[in-house]
UniProtKB/TrEMBL annotation:
Protein name: Receptor-like protein
Cell location: Membrane
InterPro entries (alphabetical): Leu-rich_rpt, LRR_dom_sf, RLP23-like
Species, as recorded: Medicago truncatula
Transmembrane residue ranges: 257-278
Keyword Transmembrane annotated: yes
Length: 319
């Protein structure tokens, strides 16, 4: 009997329980936790495992070698795995998604007879019952895993050496990412033919890629950059951009003036009120001053009212 474990998107820490190796798991998803430790021994007996997702954790050590031959998905992204990539990963005949990005892997890619049949033929051996939707922190995009999209994702490691030719025989691979490694720059190519594909974007500058003629890139309508020189770059006219800059400066000055005025008012207000609140003599003097003004106003109003009454009576007698 096979079991599924899905503990993704939690804050679990510690290590994987050693007893899990006897559960007969076929699906394990621990994505986005704080789990740590080595995992090599935990997967030695999981012969029915089809999906292994340990991404976004703090696992260390080497990548497990004794793993199930039924694996379809292997996600070890964003951990601290080190050492070389074991050749056993490229001998899984039904694997369609391999993600080892953002680790500490080194060395070169394995030179071996690649047996990733799922990535080499049109036939899909089995349809995984559900796709996996993963939302990577800070990027807000959906990371969909599906047998219809075969993926090898190995960026942000310390891989070096030459890329084996066997890797390019996996003709059904739709996503191959080897960026941010130490494979070196291209300075030894004599022949390059990338024609009649669906490449898009701009050809990287500062590399040997600009030394080939246009025929190396034909048949890629969305590809641009030297030597194609068909990128559409809109540059602003400095004369038309100047008023915008002046307006931005005016707005900045206004905002600065408002800010300084507000800060000055707040400082003055709390400077006076704070002093009255904290200094007892000032507070008493302030209230005596207020009471004195009140007394003077009272006397003044009384005299005015008395004078008004007397004047009214005098005018009455004259009439």
């Amino acid at each position: 009997m096979a079991f599924r474990v899905d503990l993704s998107y939690n804050s679990f820490s510690g290590t994987i329980p050693y007893s899990w190796k006897n559960l007969g798991l076929n699906y394990i998803n621990l994505w986005s936790n704080r789990l740590s430790g080595e995992v090599s021994l935990h997967f030695s007996n999981l012969n029915q495992l089809e999906n292994m997702n340990l991404g976004e954790n703090e696992f260390s050590g080497t990548i497990p070698i004794l793993i199930s031959q039924d694996l379809e998905v292997v996600i070890l992204r964003a951990n601290q795995f080190e050492g070389t990539i074991p050749p056993q990963l490229f001998d899984l005949h039904i694997l369609f998604h391999l993600d080892l990005a953002n680790n500490k892997l080194s060395g070169s890619l394995p030179h071996c007879v690649y047996n990733l049949t799922q990535m080499d033929t049109d036939h899909v051996y089995g349809w995984y019952p559900t796709t996996i939707d993963l939302f990577t922190k800070g990027q807000d995009y959906m990371y969909r895993v599906s047998p219809r999209r075969r993926t090898i994702d190995l960026p942000a490691n310390s891989l070096s050496g030459e890329v084996p030719l066997e890797l390019f025989r996996l003709v059904q691979v739709q996503t191959l990412n080897l960026s941010h490694n130490k494979h070196g720059s291209l300075n030894f190519l004599e022949v390059l033919n990338l024609s009649c594909n669906n490449f898009d974007g701009k050809i990287p500058i500062g590399t040997q890629l600009q030394s080939f003629n246009v025929s190396s890139y034909i048949g890629n309508p969305k590809l641009c950059g030297a030597p194609l020189n068909n990128c559409t770059i809109t540059e602003e006219n400095p004369k038309t951009a100047l008023p915008s800059t002046e307006n931005e400066d005016d707005e900045s000055i206004k905002e600065s003036l408002y800010l300084r005025t507000g800060v000055g008012f707040a400082a003055g207000f709390w400077g006076i009120c704070g002093s009255l609140f904290l200094i007892r003599k000032w507070r008493h003097a302030y209230f005596r001053f207020i009471y004195g003004i009140g007394d003077k106003l009272y006397v003044t109003l009384t005299v005015i009212m008395h004078f008004t009454v007397c004047a009214s009576e005098f005018m009455f007698h004259l009439l």
